[in-house]
Amino acid sequence: MTQADTSDVLIDCRSVWKVFGDRNAEAIRAITERGLTKTEILQEYNCVVGVSDATLQVRRGEIFCIMGLSGSGKSTLIRLLNRLIEPSLGKVLVKGQDIATLDAAALRQMRARHIGMVFQSVALLPQRNVLENAAFGLEVQGVPRDERNRAAEAALAKVGLSDWTARYPSELSGGMQQRVGLARALTSDPEIILMDEPFSALDPLIRRQLQDEFRQLTKDLGKSAVFITHDLDEAIRIGDRIAIMKDGVIIQTGTAEEIVMNPADQYVADFVAGISRLHLIKAHSVMIPAEQWQGSVDGLPRCSPEADIDALIGQITETGSDAIAVEDAGKLVGIVTIRNLLLGVRGDADATPAAAA
Amino acid sequence: MEISALIARFDEMVDNALFWLGDHAAFLFDFFRVVLEGLYDGALWLLELPPFYVVALAAGLLGWRVVGRGFGLGIAVALLACAAMGLWPETMSTLALVIAASIIALAVSLPLGVLAGLMPRLDRALTPVLDLIQTLPPYIYLLPSIALLGYGPATALVATVIVAMPPAIRLTSLGIRQTPHEFIELGRATGVTPAQMFFKIRLPFAVPSIMAGINQSLMMAFGMVVIAGIVGSGGLGETIYGAIRTLDIATSIDASIAIVILTMMLDRLTQGAARPRKGARK
Predict the structure, then answer these.
(1) Domain B26-50+86-274 classification at class level
(2) Across the interface, do B280 and A127 touch by the CB < 8 Å criterion?
(3) B183 to chain A: which residues are within 8 Å by CB?
(4) Which of A245, A272, A299 lies at the terminal end of a domain, its last residue?
(5) pLDDT at B278 over 70
(6) Integer distance in angstroms from the first to the last C-alpha of chain B?
(7) Per-residue model confidence as pLDDT tens digits over B262-277
(8) Do B192 and A140 touch (CB under 8 A)?
(9) Is A32 inside any structural domain?
(10) Total-model pTM
(11) CA quadruple B120, B124, B130, B131: dihedral positive or negative?
(12) pLDDT at residue B203 above 90?
């Protein structure tokens, strides 16, 4: 993985641990000095390791998904990023600042201005109407009513709820409530939005719709997001990069394509087995070097390295050609044959190039 | 030393302590007496300022607005009936006692309940005290108060205040403690100050519980105010006490009806005021 310019790393989470239990201080010492494992910690100290040695970086403009089943530590991890939970060990830097060193007032400022959060439970205040809920973040910052209401109205308009400002949360459907939750996070205009399983409680159709809207909105506004989910499909739909967690450990971080093509272990492999490759795998992953192609390149249809398998199949069936030439900025970079496509659909494109037609 | 001697010694100490207080802190209790009676007299003066039909009409309108039309009409008629029974001054003086006692009780118990809600240790320390207050027979409180404050409304007020405080303290503390966890987390993640956490998040969720506490305190105050007739509280309690001594069953029933009317009126009014506004339900 290439290291991005450090100024573009908004959240830098370095070897963070979280141990829960009465004797967590002793447990942490045992981990650092004796290298005890999770099970040993549970047996010897009766402490639960929630997050174990988690390292991740969230870059500007990126949607970073953390995927894991319940109990994998993903909800603990996201709360470590804005210090709702104090880490037992390790460092979290937000915009280059170690948040463990912030005093109470500075931490409030950080949360109020730079890190928005959206919850699975939505947590809309039932005594307040939609507009007042959306304006809550600015209200606690002491922004005058007119100004904060204007910002809240703008945020509600972005999530398509302009007509509902005077309603109360109990009058809204689950999907609409979560839109308000998102609008509330957007009203304060933070650079980073933490999304804690926001769509998990919604029905599948609404969830799909919100996933697409969320991704679009985040990209349009240039926000960065950390998105927690237990659903790999959701992680793939939304995330630029995905971290997969199991038992408190991040076992793999990468783009959806990297994870599907090269699962780090059997656990990840089992997870990605059922995922459709059609939109995930791009031409550059399945193509073979142009030299291995014996035929003429001139007559072949063209595509970009980022074209997905679905688009390539479309081109092949429409033109009747046996192969497609992959061009990057007008330069030939490789060839995709029907055989490559089939292997790509099956998910083992890596094994292809040697035996090309 | 023998047990019986020990106990005799303990009783003697309690008596001596009361006498000592009476001798040495008289100015303090005189001051209490003036404050308590002033509050009571003020409330009574306000209630007796307008003629009875104006008070009945005002109560009816309030009942209509807070609870409903039928209820408003009902209490207006019921209050007129109190006047028709010839018990209007007593009814108003009982109401004044309850109002004065509740104001004092709530002024102490609401802040105390909030503190107990925020500080679990204070809550644990208060619980046995409140248990004690609520298990002792209520007229126990009349004795020390009569020793220190003498015969009259001030004594009735003190005993009533003591009895009325526990429900408000308990339910306020409960309401403050029971803020749903996700809203506490919302507050923290939004960067609220501790004061904002209390006023914008904890308090709104506690309001129904606090209102229930106020309602229960009022009901306890009514019960005590009647018992306090024994110490010359004035009002319907004294009417009933007098009727019992002369076996005047008819008068005691009239006064009881007036008490029931007052109690129901305040109960429904406070419950009505506690109901959440439209749309604010979850």
Answers:
(1) mainly alpha
(2) yes
(3) 123, 125
(4) A272
(5) no
(6) 64
(7) 999 999 998 888 775 5
(8) yes
(9) no
(10) 0.80
(11) positive
(12) yes
